[in-house]
Design goal:
Chain lengths: 114, 111
């Protein structure tokens, strides 16, 4: 158990819909990352937040948005869903210090778009 | 911007030492190198991290040559449970912070 929690575990929805994925980081971690992993594919970095502020942005679509709240939990919003958005979405957290950045991953949310 | 390249797949046998190399030709001086292990339908798990030379922990060693253009993850005496996908990650702490993940190496351990 990494200490990172993600809800829901599974999500099934239809094209065109909007969903929200939630992540609670490990206690003490200020940084949260979101990743997308399609079937049998590598990890695609989406976005990183540090203490409520956006720190880095990867290949995140404009239909997707995220935020980190004052209590440090984060939400990833996916809108106008397409079939190709079906994937595992992972959240990770870290302390993100100047010398090290070990990410601890949650169990993931499996999104299925029908 | 750094870019990583690693082999798509590797096979080995139980009890052998396995070395997986990741190339990162354009790594910046402030980049760190991290390796993760992932089992199917699970989140990646941290294995080891380093900046240069050699780092060793209880599960693996990481070798980084002086030019830092590559790194090698070494798994001593692998077992069937080491069958997984292994990712290298380069973090660029420059002005435009980026996370550069390799495509992953699928390691299959045979009895």
């Amino acid at each position: 158990d990494s200490g990172v929690t993600q809800t829901p575990k599974h999500l099934i929805t239809a094209t065109g819909q909007r969903v929200t994925l939630r992540c609670s980081p490990r206690s003490g971690d200020l940084s949260v990352y979101w990743y997308q992993q399609s079937l049998d594919q590598g990890l695609q970095f989406l976005i990183q937040y540090y203490n409520g502020e956006e720190r880095a942005k990867g290949n995140i679509l404009e239909r997707f948005s995220a935020q980190q709240f004052p209590d440090l939990h984060s939400e990833l919003n996916l809108s106008s869903l397409e079939l190709g958005d079906s994937a595992l979405y992972f959240c990770a957290s870290s302390t993100w210090t100047a010398s090290t950045d070990t990410q601890y991953f949650g169990p993931g949310t499996r999104l299925t778009v029908l | 911007l750094a870019k990583t390249t690693q082999p798509i797949s590797m096979d080995s046998y139980e009890g052998q030492e396995v070395n997986i190399t990741c190339s990162h030709n354009n790594i910046a001086t402030n980049d760190y190198i991290t390796w993760y292990q992932q089992f199917p339908s699970q989140g990646p798990r941290f294995i080891i991290q380093g900046y240069k030379t050699k780092v060793t922990n209880e599960v693996a060693s990481l070798f980084i040559p002086a030019d830092r253009k590559s790194s090698t993850l070494s798994l001593p005496r692998v077992s069937l449970s080491d069958t997984a996908v292994y990712y290298c990650l380069v973090g660029d702490r420059g002005s435009n912070y980026q996370l550069i993940w390799g495509a992953g190496t699928k390691l299959i351990i045979k009895p």
